[in-house]
Specification:
The protein is α+β, with helices and mostly antiparallel strands and 183 residues long. Helices cover 30% and strands 27% of the residues. The protein has a five-stranded antiparallel β-sheet. Strand 7 and strand 8 form a beta hairpin. The radius of gyration is 17 Å and the shape is globular. The two termini are 29 Å apart. 28% of the residues are buried.
Length: 183
């Protein structure tokens, strides 16, 4: 992955009114399959939320760019990145773009096409929490720094609980929990 997966910019000048547009010197989604690995790394998706910040996501391959969850996730992250300091009126920190980037990189690793998108909520310490509460499963991944996070899973059907650190526990989450959510 590139060194900076997410970039934000206040300048929306020159963007079309479309909420979502693939961009890489005019590359379309259909053409992304034919790009070399280097060209694909240079491709990026641009997402604009109204007249607020622009979120550019670099280095996403064609499979992920076509995923239904990606656009909703980018909208949520863009909104969170626009939260001002003290957004909760109790002294909450603004969202750390490194945390948002790490959260997105986690999702790129674990999400499949049938996986429902998570709810994405800010934390008062400037982090991001990814949540799924469905199909008898509660899964929460809290990203508290640009390189670290924790997950917690409760399966209401079996009564089992598990928790661990991210990124170490991602393979278990993908194989066990997200497979159930994707059924």
């Amino acid at each position: 992955m590139p060194s900076s997966l997410i970039e934000t910019d206040q300048n929306t000048e020159g963007l079309s009114n479309a909420d979502w547009a693939p961009a890489a010197m005019g590359t379309t989604l259909a053409e992304l399959d034919n790009l070399s690995a280097r060209e694909r790394e240079e491709s990026y998706a641009v997402h604009r939320v109204a007249s607020e910040r622009v979120v550019m996501v670099k280095g996403i391959d064609a499979r992920v760019m076509r995923s239904a969850w990606l656009m909703q996730t980018l909208k949520s992250l863009a909104k969170l990145l626009n939260l001002p300091p003290n957004w909760d009126s109790y002294g909450a920190l603004p969202i750390d773009s490194g945390c948002a980037e790490f959260a997105l990189s986690i999702l790129i690793q674990i999400m499949g096409d049938p996986t429902p998108p998570p709810s994405i909520v800010p934390t008062v310490s400037g982090g991001v929490q990814l949540e799924w509460h469905m199909k008898g499963i509660d899964l929460e991944i809290e990203v508290s720094s640009p390189t670290q996070g924790q997950y917690y899973v409760f399966d209401h059907c079996t009564g089992s609980e598990q928790e661990g650190s991210v990124p170490e526990g991602l393979n278990n989450l993908k194989a066990e929990v997200l497979a159930k959510l994707s059924e």
